[in-house]
Amino acid sequence: MKMFTDIIKSRIQKIWHNKDGVAAIEFAFIAPAMIALYIGLAEVSLLISADRNVSHAASVTGDLATQEENLTSSEIEDIFNASLAVLGTNLTNSQRVSIDIRSFEIDEDGNLQEVGYAKLGNGLNEKFDASETSTALLNQTSGLVVTRVEYNYYSASRSFVQTPTLSETFMLKPRKSPTITFGTNITCSVSSGGNGVRANC
Question: Is this structure's pTM higher than 0.85?
Answer without folding.
Answer: no
